[in-house]
Amino acid sequence: MAKATFSIRRGGRDGGEMVDYQAEVSEGMVVLDAVHQIQAESAPDLACRWNCKAGKCGSCSAEINGMPKLMCMTRLDTIDLSQTVTIEPMRAFPPIKDLISDVSWNYEVKKRIKKFNPRKPDAEDGTWRMQQSDIDRVQEFRKCIECYLCQDVCHVLRDHNKHEEFIGPRFLVYTAALEMHPLDTENRTEDLKDMFGIGYCNITKCCTKVCPEHITITDNAIIPLKERVVDEHYDPLKKLVKLFRKK
Amino acid sequence: MTDHTTFEHDVLVIGAGGAGLRAAIEATAAGVSVGLICKSLLGKAHTVMAEGGMAAAMGNVDDRDNWKVHFSDTMRGGQYVNNWRMAELHAKEAPDRVRELEAWGAVFDRTKDGKILQRNFGGHRYPRLAHVGDRTGLELIRTLQDHGIHQGIDVHMEVTVISLLKDGDRVVGCFAYEREHGRFRVFKAKAVILATGGVGRAYRITSNSWEGTGDGHALAYHAGAELIDMEFIQFHPTGMVWPPSVRGILVTEGVRGEGGILKNSEGKRFMFDDIPANYKEQTADNEEEGWRYVTGDKNARRPPELLTRDHVARCINREVKAGRGTPHGGVYLDIAWIKEKIKDAPEHIKRKLPSMYHQFMQLANLDITTTPMEVGPTTHYIMGGIRVDADTQASTLPGLYAAGECASGINGANRLGGNSLSDLIVFGKRAGEYAAQFSKENSHGSIDDAQIDREAKRALEPFERVDGENPFAIQHDLQGMMQDLVGIVRQESEMLEALDGLAKLNERAKKTFVPGNIDFNPGWHTSLDLRNLLTVSEAITRSAIERKESRGGQFRDDYPDKDPEFSKFNIAVKEVNGEMQISRVPIPEMPAELKQVIEEMG
Ligand SMILES: Cc1cc2nc3c(=O)[nH]c(=O)nc-3n(C[C@H](O)[C@H](O)[C@H](O)COP(=O)(O)OP(=O)(O)OC[C@H]3O[C@@H](n4cnc5c(N)ncnc54)[C@H](O)[C@@H]3O)c2cc1C
Ligand code: SF4
Ligand code: SF4
Ligand code: FES
């Protein structure tokens, strides 16, 4: 069987180094299989996160040859194995150990976004009526598996460290899903502008490119949200109207 | 004394899948303080992987559906050894629990008149599964998570519980370590709810994640609680079989619900050859009728591909053993064929089964809209678990509750697809409610330090050795043995061999060695998980030996038939003086009203 060399970041919060390991390659293998093989055979203390091994849980995010990807969905036959393959944790977050980074910031951000607040039920039995065509867009956003690869690649977070001022593409998608939910009555545009820093996004679309769920983050979520902010903030009449109608 | 940090909550929930989250939400709503512990990050629990949907008799698609039909379907699927009271509560309450999710922000697929859409699934008489494409579990967990984070629940992520702590008979907390630095934590609680999910990792071919190591089952067992029905394991008929690295990953039953058919290497739809007598009346006897059923004809009967999972899995097993399997040892599951019936078939398939399409495209280089998939049985779900009271979810120990997959009763010998997600929200809620009530009526217990020291010492042993067994190797050997000896088709001699094997593996597990330090060390984590895996494997094996018949998830080559004697009790295991003791717990007589429901529903 063919062998390939993987250079994996080892080390804790204070720093680390790249260490080379060999793994045997068989048909259909993904990067996560290689990491598991190395763990079972030569480095039992090699830390990585995973759960579903089928691209559904968003746990196994890493940078493979510098590209933010899910390890469980990256097949080895899509990578040039004649060269050493590098595997590193997501760099936009502090490292914890080996391939694991500290993503707790994301959990804190989500709490700051106003929760879903539905209108009164449409029917007497406490249920609502919605047409499929009215929820297609929201369902696209709700496919998000919270892998945070989009957060990892966004330069506002990665290079400029604006974690205090900018919630990042994942949470703009999350806000969009709430704002465009046909039943929701809350207004989050003010927050988008002031607390969530939507203005920092300059539509580079890097987030959309890495999303494993193929959510069109920029075109479908961020740009419409930006438009809402502009509409409401800079158009006093609209702002007034908005105050009086539900949404 | 062992270095540790102590946390105090009124109610402590162990597990943050659908059941744990729902329980935590309910308990906070009752006004008590709640802690929630999970091994992974929040939102990553096994529930996230569920695909097909959650069963609730809302009658949105077929108004003939109601709780009575759902109840009788569940009992029939479970071959009448279910806890009938749980099956009743589940059927009655699931619709409200599903609607409540909508009020919390879930966005289910819709019917034409704007209601929650429901789909067909094996063993359910009418279209009953509320769903979101084939990612229903994600919708469920995200809805509960996003609702729950505003409720003031204290979440402890990446923390693993390794034993329950007791004050006399009563469970008063637990002992755990946090994964990042391996530091010990003691949680004191007035009531503890286990919601730790399943045991699939005891087998080599499984749809379960690394978390499915039966922790809750083992924690409860070692604390002295009873487990029942442990012999009933669900092997899902359709797991991926190729390439090797994805073997076991689930292919949702939704594929068959949308018209997918099973064929052997001779191109024959073999499921028509073997329709069990008690399902004959409900099952189509020709292909044409089967197709009409999946396209919504209310007068058609369901195709045999949608018979219960235990049966379909065994039929597939038989085809493969008889040499009519595919090149990689499975059978064909074909959804592409529907292009003969409908115009825009590829688009339709991609819309209805998006994650299946991607899963096969990305992992197997196969386009399911043009090519049949190769599938075979995979270990999926355990019907057995902690014995609970139907109404309150209280275990046999005071202060300890259980809900979700780690609890037992509702499913009997075989679970119907879609009945788990609804089980999580129905009984998660109940567990939260009654645990909160218990916590209001009782004060904190006391925990003696000796218990803590003993557990800590045991946990640290792998670091004290200078050499020893590789925990991954032991886990691998255990999985292979269970797969071979206590799998889909069982017999006494092999299971006795498995018991010997387990004893040897137990010895090896006491000698594990892990290099490196205690910080986020998967070798160490695996080493600690072994105890749980070995405990549940023994419980499965002993219970399977005790049940000398074939029923639902248990098929015995040496007793291939159902034996009415065995419909009168459940098999229970309990730890007595360090030994596993087996007993038979009689099933109480079903009340006349419920008997009548079953008769009426046929
Ligand atoms: C691929 C797949 C598809 C499925 N599809 C469907 C479907 O369509 N419909 C359906 O009804 N069912 C389906 N099921 C079954 C269903 O998903 C599971 O039975 C259900 O999600 C289990 O939920 P739970 O809340 O009991 O536990 P889980 O979701 O498994 O969560 C367990 C939790 O316990 C925690 N935990 C475990 N041990 C410890 C410990 N020692 N210390 C601390 N925390 C611990 C874990 O971290 C996790 O948070 C599917 C299962 C799989 C695998
Ligand atoms: S489009 Fe905006 S959010 Fe996305 S990566 Fe670029 S700057 Fe970041
Ligand atoms: S939007 Fe896409 S890339 Fe971002 S977290 Fe969600 S799934 Fe991942
Ligand atoms: S392990 Fe779940 S997305 Fe990779």
Low-confidence stretches of chain B: none
Element order of chain A: H for helix, E for strand? EEHEEEEEHHHHHHHHH
Q: What distance lies between the first and last C-alpha atoms of chain B, to the nearest angstrom?
A: 63 Å
- Per CATH, the architecture of the largest domain in chain A is Orthogonal Bundle
> How far apart are the termini of chain A?
61 Å
SSE-based structural type of chain A? alpha+beta
The rounded Rg of chain B comes to 23 Å
CATH topology name of the largest domain in chain B, in short, is FAD/NAD(P)-binding domain
Total strands of chain B:
19
Q: CATH class of the largest domain in chain A, please? A: Mainly Alpha
Oligomer type: heterodimer
User: Main interface pair?
Assistant: A-B, 58 and 66 residues
* Overall number of domains of chain B: 2
Structural Rg of chain A? 21 Å
- Profile the largest sheet of chain A: 5 strands, mixed
Identify the overall geometry of chain A: elongated
Name of the top-level CATH class of the largest domain in chain B: Alpha Beta
Helix content of chain A: 25-40%
Compact description:
The complex is a heterodimer of chains A (247) and B (602). Chain A is of the alpha+beta class and 247 residues long. Chain A is 36% helix and 16% strand.
What report would you give on this structure?
The complex is a heterodimer of chains A (247) and B (602). Chain A is of the alpha+beta class. Chain A has two domains: 2-101, Beta-grasp domain (Ubiquitin-like (UB roll)); 104-238, Alpha-helical ferredoxin (Fumarate Reductase Iron-sulfur Protein, Chain B, domain 2). Chain A is built from ten helices and seven strands. Chain A has helices spanning 31-41, 104-112, 132-142, 149-153, 155-158, 168-179, 189-194, 206-210, 217-234, 236-244; strands spanning 2-12, 15-25, 61-64, 67-70, 85-88, 95-97, 100-101. In chain A, the strands form two sheets. A five-stranded mixed β-sheet of chain A has the order 2-1-5-3-4. In chain A, a hairpin with a 2-residue loop joins strand 3 (61-64) and strand 4 (67-70). In chain A, helix 3 (132-142) runs antiparallel to helix 6 (168-179), helix 6 (168-179) packs across helix 9 (217-234) and helix 9 (217-234) crosses helix 10. Chain A is elongated and about 65 Å long. The model of chain A has no long low-confidence stretch (mean pLDDT 94). Chain B has two domains: 1-52 and 84-92 and 136-232 and 383-602, FAD/NAD(P)-binding domain (3-Layer(bba) Sandwich), CATH 3.50.50; 236-379, Alpha-Beta Complex (Flavocytochrome C3, Chain A, domain 1). Helix content of chain B is 36%, strand content 17%. Chain B has 16 helices and 19 strands. In chain B, the strands form four sheets. In chain B, strands 1, 2, 6, 7, 8, 9 and 16 form a seven-stranded mixed β-sheet that branches. In chain B, helix 2 (67-77) packs across helix 3 and helix 13 runs antiparallel to helix 14 (492-509). The termini of chain B are far apart. The chains are: A alpha+beta (247), B alpha/beta (602).
